[in-house]
């Protein structure tokens, strides 16, 4: 007979083992059934969305009549229809910021849905969308967040009256005293860009309205948090139970972004109700990049009170988040989710914070992996590097000096986070040794001796996981939040054992590819003495059938500290029940039983055992023999909410998350002195995420977060030009790093089990999103000695910091005027037309002649004196689009000069422009001088990026070529020659 | 992101293709690899009445030497040229340039002539053709003509090809004896459109530099062999003549800077490759 200790040793524990993910083959070999693959009911219709080409414009009229008459079109909906059928979406703030699923009254960002077409298939729906005529009155846009809060800025929501929709101030400790007593105050302004971890799979919604039940049945890839479920049901004017949300267990990635599917869920539900048929909508990539979601860009003004020895005694933050055009739940989360740990990994007692929520004419911001962490740590860790530079210290010494020390856990941070476990100094020393920092320093010195630009960067951060559902309450005044206190974070999972003893698991995690099936099978296998391949995990989710709560969903790295714990609790309930059943047949007390190798075994006599399946089966086959008062069947649900997640207290302290891991990164980068390219030479990342449930899965999370973080640091940004046109509508302009660009980081782990979760595990999927961008920036700062660095650190940006003044143009050459990217397209030039000035003048004024000059003009009508409407098809090379044009001539000084202004709009986008034309006699001909300024927006600006300037010039040239042909072409016969000159003379 | 409805013809011969093109009018389009055209179709930037697919015309899938030129047929994929045995020997500039074209997946479908027809100002194949002084063969119902690279590419996405013509072959000059060749480009990621692409040729008496991505078409300049500050001055003048433009990825100034700095690297590399 084996004794207990020996038996324990033999029991193989699966939790903690690097078991390969059961998901991988299915996901990587294309065997998964993704949302778009889900079967739909016969007769399902398909939707296409017409979107705004303008950043800010009043909707004057929408004419859907042509579209409605097209074959195969079932219905066309506009904002007015949606407003009639639904309520505006609930938001956290008490502000009159109304948003429906389609724009009502005006558009507030490029890509905002304006109309919905439902047709027999997507092709027909897109054909019809192109036939909707929307008349806009274009308004000035609030684009840059600093401009948007200046006096006189265009207002995004007039009813609010300001683009600052929330300002809150917080103070902890005595920051004023700390700053007064500091040896030095270090200040820094950081700007964190808009970006998103763009999933391979976009949004998919199929909605089926069941008239008889007044029920919306929705299949979509909604990832939660289910805080937005009531937002949807209230918008649809139904009870929660009348909105059934089903999500498949296979996903092409979420990264937080997929919570933003909710306005589309409502929109497609309304379309199904209106048509009486199921309606399906699949988001395309242009829609995703322009209108799905972006992490808010943040402006941070940070100050540190610093003592001579490098001790930081206080931080003062002024944080302004740009949430774009609307506040969609759970916004403004990124500003508050990190609130409890605004002091990062540091033992800083004094803290002052001002938080501002700013609205602009950009895509509404949303949940994106990292959720406020990347922005916050960019400011904090850049600050620590600056403190080191200003004090002449080693940056790592400044980090060490200020760390939360060992042995103080649980540690209450100034703003309320309860840091649960860790040993930050030891984690750093291990990383320094195991990652070979000294060698890296020697390499840097050797490279610098050769004249190379080489730098080392560091970042130490605390990674939060499992958000407190009360974290956003801090945005409300104390008395208001006291009336309706929020906190906690409930998780649910269910373990079921069927009549043959087969175990299945369901849970509230809505996985997005992280390996949840694998880990849940490991946990349940350990509790029940089975092997993981005996545990069937099914993570399809159905709100009509599965246990869910407000915190349900896949976000805030909540799986390992929430769902996994609920699953363990459910498995333990099953074990307790089966122990009682087995105890009856084995005649020993339940607590003397072990679950080992598919058997339930008497610890003191291993031959006294019963098969697991037999014990479970008796709950199905012979319920009459069960212990007294025991219910039949074996199906147990575990629910869990940690007590540490309290509502904010009267000092505004809040424990924003349940667990706090520690991440310490350092890296070496080399910069090409000619191109400004940043090459990541070496990268070490140390994680203490508590107990690792599966080291392979943990490393996968680190790899994924790191890869995106490299993108954030060096490549990715959603760019708007100064008019609010969206410029990064394809992956040729929104640059995600590929495997070529992402080096293999050296991943190190240490395990300080969390004391607040039964499994001891913390989150690990977001740490590098927070640490890596700033670590790389610090390395670049070290390499080139720059203080002011804004991500992404593109080659052109870095080159501008290292190249110094440009070599002058040779004396005889005119230097072109400097322009800045993102500004209006502008140009000027001159050309000789072999005709008299009067002829040229008359051509510009004669509608018929003008029609012949405007490229691709089909019909031109004079609508008033010197005002015309035209149908034109414009293009360059094979690219061509149909547009309505409005052109007016003004400031006319016959026959000398005039101003042409107007706009075009069509399915490819819109343009507004002004041009000045001046005619001077020149020998026998006329010299035509011109300059122009054009704003482009909509699809062509979003996808045409690098071609826009050239294409605009080409169109202007076409105009003048035609002018030449029209006024003197035949006679002069010199069109080709002159045409060739235009390109050169245009500058 | 769905194209408009259009007809599709898989041409069995050049004759069939040019006849269909002549019948199809202004909105007929040729498709071969589709690596540029298909995304433009899906964005509805291009709305053809008919697509005429020339990629399956067996007689147009060839690489052969002819009169000091390497001629590549219009059904020949970029990957075929990349793997052609004679590439390093006959077309060293292309051997250096082709790995920069997109990704191996796109090179497996994209054709050499398709890239020339598309006339993207940043593309490697048009730049190489311009730098080497190659030519294209244009075929229509009424016959064939040849145009030099310089005469062919007239601007951004624009060529001298008439609407009824197909680029049926590209002709790249075989390496000059003793000359050295080099190619590089700056793109943010591997396979991206070049911010600046540079092709260099050095002979005993001349140096030549072709630049893509800065003007609206590849631009080539030739000098007597220059070194040191004379080369710097020549490159500076070239950079200012090209001017450059701003987009979200780079400024005009950055583009000029790359012409100066990488131009020097490419010319020095070409010089060092002379035999």
Order of helices and strands of chain B: EHEHEEEHHHHHHEEHEEEEEEEHH
Could you estimate the helical fraction of the residues of chain A in percent?
25-40%
Outline of chain B:
globular
- The quaternary organization reads as heterodimer
Helix percent of chain B reads 25-40%
Derived structural class of chain B:
alpha+beta
Can you summarize the main beta sheet of chain B? Answer: 5 strands, antiparallel
Biggest interface found? A-B, 67 and 57 residues
Low-confidence stretches of chain A: 1-9, 970-987
What does this structure look like?
- The complex is a heterodimer of chains A (987) and B (275).
- In chain A, α12 packs across α13 (395-402) and α24 crosses α26.
- Chain A has 987 residues and is an alpha+beta fold.
- The relative contact order of chain A is 0.10.
- Chain A starts with a helix and ends with a helix.
- The model of chain A is unreliable at 1-9 and 970-987 (pLDDT under 50).
- Chain A has an eight-stranded mixed beta sheet.
- With 275 residues, chain B is an alpha+beta fold.
- Chain B has helices spanning 14-24, 37-42, 78-83, 87-90, 92-97, 104-109, 112-118, 124-132, 149-152, 228-242, 252-272; strands spanning 7-10, 28-31, 50-53, 63-66, 69-73, 135-140, 143-148, 153-155, 158-159, 166-173, 180-186, 196-202, 206-212, 219-224.
- The longest helix of chain B has 21 residues, at 252-272.
- Chain B starts with 6 loop residues before the first strand and ends with a helix.
- The interface between A and B is large, with 67 and 57 residues.
């Amino acid at each position: 007979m084996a004794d207990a200790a020996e038996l324990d040793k033999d029991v193989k524990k699966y939790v903690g083992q690097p078991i390969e993910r059961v998901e991988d083959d299915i996901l990587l070999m294309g065997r998964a059934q993704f949302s778009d693959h889900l079967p739909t009911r016969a007769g399902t219709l398909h939707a296409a969305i017409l979107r705004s080409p303008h950043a800010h414009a009043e909707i004057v009229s929408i004419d859907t009549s042509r579209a409605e008459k097209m074959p195969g079109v079932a219905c066309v909906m506009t904002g007015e229809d949606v407003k009639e059928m639904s309520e505006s979406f609930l938001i956290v703030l008490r502000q009159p910021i109304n948003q429906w699923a389609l724009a009502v009254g005006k558009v507030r960002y490029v890509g905002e849905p304006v109309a919905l077409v439902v047709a027999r298939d997507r092709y027909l729906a897109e054909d019809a969308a192109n036939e909707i005529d929307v008349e806009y009155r274009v308004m000035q846009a609030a684009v840059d967040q600093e401009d948007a809060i200046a006096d006189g800025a265009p207002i995004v929501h007039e009813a609010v009256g300001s683009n600052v929709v929330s300002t809150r101030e917080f103070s902890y400790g005595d920051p004023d005293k700390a700053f007064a007593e500091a040896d030095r105050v270090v200040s820094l302004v950081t700007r964190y860009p808009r970006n998103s971890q763009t999933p391979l799979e976009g949004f998919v919604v199929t909605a089926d309205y069941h008239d008889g039940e007044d029920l919306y049945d929705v299949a979509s890839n909604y990832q939660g948090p289910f805080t937005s479920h009531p937002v949807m049901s209230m918008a649809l004017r139904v009870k929660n139970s009348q909105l059934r949300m089903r999500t498949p267990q296979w996903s092409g990635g979420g990264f937080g972004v997929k919570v933003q599917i909710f306005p589309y869920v409502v929109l497609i539900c309304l379309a199904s109700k209106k048509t009486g048929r199921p309606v399906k909508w699949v988001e395309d990539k242009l829609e995703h990049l322009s209108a799905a979601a972006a992490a808010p860009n943040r402006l941070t003004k940070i100050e540190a009170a610093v003592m001579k020895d490098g001790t930081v005694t206080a931080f003062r933050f002024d944080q302004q988040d740009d949430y774009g055009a609307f506040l969609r739940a759970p916004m403004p989360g990124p500003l508050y989710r990190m609130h409890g740990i605004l002091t990062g990994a540091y033992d800083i007692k004094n803290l002052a914070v001002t938080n501002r929520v700013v609205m602009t004419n950009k895509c509404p911001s949303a949940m994106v992996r990292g959720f406020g962490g990347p922005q916050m740590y960019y400011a904090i860790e850049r600050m620590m590097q600056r403190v080191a530079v200003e004090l002449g210290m080693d940056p790592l010494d400044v980090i060490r000096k200020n760390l939360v020390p060992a042995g103080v856990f649980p540690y209450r941070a100034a703003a309320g986070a309860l840091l649960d476990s860790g040993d930050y100094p030891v984690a750093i020393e291990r990383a320094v040794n195991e990652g070979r920092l000294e060698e890296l320093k020697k390499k840097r010195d050797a490279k610098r001796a050769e004249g190379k630009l080489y730098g080392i960067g560091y970042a130490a951060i605390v990674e939060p996981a499992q958000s407190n559902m009360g974290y956003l309450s801090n945005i409300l005044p104390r008395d208001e939040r006291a009336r309706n206190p929020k906190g906690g974070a409930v998780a649910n999972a269910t373990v079921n054992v069927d009549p043959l003893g087969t175990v299945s698991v369901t849970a509230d995690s809505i996985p997005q590819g992280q390996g949840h099936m694998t880990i849940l099978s490991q946990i349940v296998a350990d509790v029940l003495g089975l092997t993981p391949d005996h545990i069937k995990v099914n993570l399809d989710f159905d709100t009509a059938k599965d246990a869910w709560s407000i915190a349900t969903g896949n976000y805030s790295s909540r799986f390992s500290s929430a769902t996994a714990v609920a699953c363990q609790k459910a498995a333990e309930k099953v074990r307790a029940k089966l122990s009682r059943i087995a105890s009856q047949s084995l005649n020993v007390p339940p607590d003397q039983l072990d679950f080992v190798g598919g058997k339930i075994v008497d610890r003191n006599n291993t031959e006294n055992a019963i098969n697991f399946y037999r014990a479970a089966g008796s709950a199905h086959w012979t319920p009459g023999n069960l212990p007294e008062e025991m219910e039949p069947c074996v199906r147990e649900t575990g629910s869990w909410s940690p007590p540490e997640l309290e509502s904010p207290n009267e000092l505004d302290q809040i424990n924003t998350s349940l667990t706090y891991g520690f991440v310490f990164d350092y890296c070496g980068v080399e910069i090409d002195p000619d191109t400004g390219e940043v090459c990541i030479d070496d990268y070490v990342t140390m994680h203490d995420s508590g107990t690792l449930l599966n080291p392979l899965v943990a490393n996968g999370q680190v790899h994924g977060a790191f890869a995106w973080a490299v993108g954030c640091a060096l490549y990715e940004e959603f760019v708007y030009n100064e008019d609010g046109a969206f410029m990064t509508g394809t992956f040729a302009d929104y640059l995600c790093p590929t495997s070529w660009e992402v080096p293999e980081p050296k991943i190190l782990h240490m395990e300080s089990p969390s004391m607040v979760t039964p499994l001891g595990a913390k989150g690990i999927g977001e740490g590098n999103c927070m640490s890596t961008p700033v670590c790389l920036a610090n390395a670049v700062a070290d390499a080139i000695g720059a203080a002011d660095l804004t991500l992404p650190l593109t080659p052109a940006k870095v080159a501008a910091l290292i190249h110094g003044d440009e070599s002058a143009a040779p004396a005889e050459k005119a230097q072109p005027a400097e322009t800045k990217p993102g500004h209006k397209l502008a140009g000027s030039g001159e050309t000789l037309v072999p005709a008299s000035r009067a002829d040229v003048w008359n051509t510009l004024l004669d509608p018929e002649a003008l029609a012949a000059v405007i490229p691709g003009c089909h019909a031109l009508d004079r609508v008033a004196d010197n005002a015309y409407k035209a149908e034109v098809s414009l293009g360059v090379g094979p690219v061509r689009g149909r547009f309505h044009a409005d052109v007016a001539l003004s400031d006319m000084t016959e026959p000398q000069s005039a101003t042409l202004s107007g706009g075009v709009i069509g399915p490819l986008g819109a343009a507004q422009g002004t041009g000045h034309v001046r005619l001077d006699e020149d020998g026998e001909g006329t010299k035509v001088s011109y300059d122009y300024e054009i704003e482009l927006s909509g699809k062509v600006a979003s996808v045409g990026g690098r071609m826009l300037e050239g294409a605009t010039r080409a169109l202007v040239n076409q105009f003048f070529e035609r002018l030449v042909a029209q006024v003197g072409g035949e006679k002069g016969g010199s069109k080709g020659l002159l045409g060739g000159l235009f390109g050169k003379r245009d500058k | 992101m769905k194209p408009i409805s259009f007809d599709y013809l898989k041409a069995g011969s050049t004759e069939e293709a040019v006849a269909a093109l002549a019948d199809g009018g202004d909105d007929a389009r040729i498709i071969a690899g589709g690596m540029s055209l298909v995304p433009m179709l899906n964005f509805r930037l291009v709305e053809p009445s008919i697509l005429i697919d020339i990629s399956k015309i067996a007689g147009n899938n060839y690489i052969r030497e002819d009169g000091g030129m390497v001629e590549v047929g219009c059904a020949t994929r970029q990957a075929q040229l990349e793997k052609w045995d004679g590439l390093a020997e006959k077309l060293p500039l292309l051997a250096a340039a082709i790995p920069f074209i997109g990704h191996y997946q796109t090179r497996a479908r994209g054709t050499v002539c398709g890239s020339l027809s598309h006339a993207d100002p940043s593309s490697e194949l048009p730049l190489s053709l311009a730098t080497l002084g190659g030519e294209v063969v244009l075929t229509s119902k009424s016959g064939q003509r040849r145009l030099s690279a310089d005469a062919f590419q007239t601007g951004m996405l624009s060529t001298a090809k008439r609407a009824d013509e197909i680029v049926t072959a590209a002709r790249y000059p075989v390496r000059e004896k003793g000359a050295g060749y080099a190619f590089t480009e700056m793109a943010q990621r591997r396979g991206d459109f070049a911010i600046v692409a540079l092709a260099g040729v050095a002979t005993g008496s001349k140096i030549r530099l072709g630049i893509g991505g800065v003007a609206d078409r590849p631009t080539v300049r030739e000098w007597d062999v220059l070194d040191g500050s004379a080369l710097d001055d020549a490159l500076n003048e070239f950079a200012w003549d090209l001017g450059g433009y701003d987009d979200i990825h780079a400024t005009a100034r950055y583009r000029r800077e790359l012409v100066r700095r990488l131009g020097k690297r490419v010319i020095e590399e070409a010089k060092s490759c002379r035999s």
